[in-house]
Design goal:
Two copies of one chain form a homodimer.
Chain A lengths: L4 H8 L2 H9 L4 H4 L10 H14 L1 H9 L14 H6 L4 H21 L10 E4 L3 E4 H25 L18
Chain lengths: ~170, ~170
């Protein structure tokens, strides 16, 4: 599948709805446990997605399309969610993510990006030159990856309960 | 996390809602492609979930709790969805799954299963003796596994579009 802005947005705008229907009101037994040391719970993942909305995707898009010749992206903080989410409820994070995502997609749409602009580039601290098309594609795949991760983390809470079926539940062995 | 019937149902009843918010109205570019030969698209996965509702989870639960001494499960057909889904739309499958899942959870609740009954067993064609607790836990983990799979299959449609970020998108390398 070739990159398509509208088809990308069709995934990005669903993510808060999917996360709400997946997690809202669920027991903390499902949402607050992780996969072991140095792994994230669904609660942690939600904080990470919020930090992305606040500091990554749209910020970097704006750097790429702006007239400012400085195209350097700031490094993304992969641990910021622990401080950020402290003391907040899952429900709070869910609605915060929904608001931020909807605002960001409004900003993205308002840019009325052309195909030509999708080839503009910014400078990633590790990768160097990256295009806007690659950034937005990554935003989409990153959402889908974290929905998969949430699914896996929750499934693993039943790892010792499924008995011999573990053989056919690949998700429990990842 | 120890098995809990109500907490299991809290996941099972969300799955049709999650799948609706995830897939309904989405372009076929996202829903009708797979990961390569002998893999499933989100459309195929949905058919597989329907076949499970029709022939597996509740059918096997009923075998386990019934007075009938024959506790043998029929083997599950892992290819039945291809014939079953033929000519149907994704929207059709989504609403069919929702109806079947809700009916099955109604049946499950109506059984008013006790903790003691959760240890009753049936006979699996490959594994031999399995408990009702293991069956219901597997139902839950199986749902979560297929939501993860749907996420992965959709993410992979952008595998060639994310550029160097593929390094940090583990989902694209599974």
């Amino acid at each position: 599948m070739k990159f398509d802005l509208e088809k990308s947005i069709s995934i990005l705008e669903r993510t808060p709805v999917v996360l709400n229907s997946y997690l809202k009101g669920l027991s903390e037994d499902w949402t607050n446990h992780n996969e072991g040391e140095n792994t994230w719970s669904p609660f942690d993942i939600l904080g990470h997605l919020i930090v992305g909305e606040k500091t990554d995707w749209i910020t970097r898009t704006q750097i790429i399309v702006s007239d400012n010749p400085d195209k350097n992206f700031k490094p993304f903080n992969m641990a910021a969610q622990f401080e950020y989410s402290k003391g907040k409820s899952l429900e709070h994070l869910l609605s915060e993510f929904e608001v931020l995502r909807n605002e960001n997609l409004k900003k993205l749409r308002a840019m009325k990006l052309t195909d030509k602009q999708m080839s503009l580039t910014g400078f990633h601290p590790e990768f160097g030159e990256v295009s806007l098309k690659e950034l937005v594609s990554t935003w989409v795949a990153h959402d889908l990856g974290h929905i998969a991760q949430i699914s896996r983390v929750m499934a693993k809470q039943y790892k010792s309960e499924v008995g011999p079926w573990i053989k056919y539940l690949g998700i429990l062995n990842k």
